[in-house]
Amino acid sequence: VQLQASGGGLVQPGGFLRLSCAASGSILRIVTLAWYRQAPGKQRDLVASVTIFGSTNYADSVKGRFTISRDNAKNTVYLQMNSLKPEDTAVYYCNTEPPNRDFWGQGTQVTVSS
């Protein structure tokens, strides 16, 4: 399975974006899928995760603003990002949780700036 993130872009503070992660195959056997992000000069951090049962987990910095979801029928994971802040600027990646080193793709750039 390959995972391809998309949907990033330039948005003003307070704005919103919806990221998508399309899998090349079925995600039904993947228990937990997640979004990660890496800002310039910083390590890659877990942003949010969702299990096949629908349970979700969020980093404290995004709680109440981001929502992760998965559509198993479409083999896609989403990250709805609202009330974006400049500190959300990063390259966003999707992967399993814990991450599989073979699944890191190009990611999608999110820039929050006025």
Model description:
By secondary structure, the protein is an all-beta fold. The chain is built from no helices and ten strands. The strands form two sheets. It has a six-stranded mixed β-sheet, with no helix packed on it. A four-stranded antiparallel β-sheet has the order 1-3-8-7, with no helix packed on it. A hairpin with a 5-residue loop joins strand 4 and strand 5 (44-51). It is globular. The protein starts with a strand and ends with a strand.
Structural key phrases:
single chain, 114 residues, mainly beta, six-stranded mixed beta sheet, four-stranded antiparallel beta sheet, 49% strand
Number of helices: 0
Largest sheet descriptor:
6 strands, mixed
Q: Could you say which structural class the secondary elements and strand pairing correspond to?
A: mainly beta
Q: Give average pLDDT, whole number.
A: 95
The global form is globular
Which sequence of strands runs across the widest sheet? 2-10-9-4-5-6
Q: What is the strand content?
A: over 45%
In terms of per-residue confidence, which ranges show pLDDT below 50 for 5 or more consecutive residues? none
Oligomeric state of shown chains: single chain
Radius of gyration: 13 Å
What percent of the residues sit in helical stretches (DSSP H or I)? under 10%
User: What distance separates the N and C termini?
Assistant: 37 Å
List the helices and strands in order.
EEEEEEEEEE
In total, how many beta strands? 10
